[in-house]
Amino acid sequence: MILLIEDNEANLKLLKTMVRMIGCESVGFTTGEEACDWCATNKPGLILCDIMLPGMNGSEVLQQLRTIEHLQDVPIVAVTAVAMEGDKERLLEEGFDEYIAKPLNFSSFQSTVKSLLRS
């Protein structure tokens, strides 16, 4: 199960479709708060998190998720249009395990997701 955190409904639908196309199931939330609540009693195999979210931003979601003991080994990926020079490095330094830039490229999305699910 892949957890998708994306506030834009069209992007969330696209992510769900892309995840389904690579043979995985997903659950999606439009706010970090909803996703964190769900994670209190569930453990996804991978978390894909937008950065520009209402309420808690993606970095705050990351910090909250990292406090949940059963998620310590779950990869958390920043999926974002925040793509200026240095943004990828900053997000990785914050603790994201990987970075996927929008607009999404299916081939690179697929290889990144499959690689993280294998690890």
Question: What can you see in these coordinates?
Answer:
With 119 residues, the protein is an alpha/beta fold. The chain has a single domain (2-118), classed as Response regulator (Rossmann fold). It is built from 5 helices and 5 strands. It has a 5-stranded parallel β-sheet, with helices on both faces. Helix 2 (32-39) runs parallel beside helix 3. The two termini are 15 Å apart. The model has no long low-confidence stretch (mean pLDDT 94).
Provide key terms for this protein.
single chain, 119 residues, Rossmann fold, 5 helices, globular
The strand line-up of the biggest sheet is: 2-1-3-4-5
Regarding quaternary structure, what we see is single chain
SSE pattern:
EHEHEHEHEH
Nearest-integer average pLDDT: 94
Return the CATH topology.
Rossmann fold
Q: Which structural class should the secondary elements be placed in?
A: alpha/beta
| Percent of residues in helices | 40-55%
| Strand residues, percent | 15-25%
* Through-space gap between termini: 15 Å
- Number of separate strands: 5
Name given to the CATH homologous superfamily: Response regulator
CATH architecture annotation: 3-Layer(aba) Sandwich
CATH class: Alpha Beta
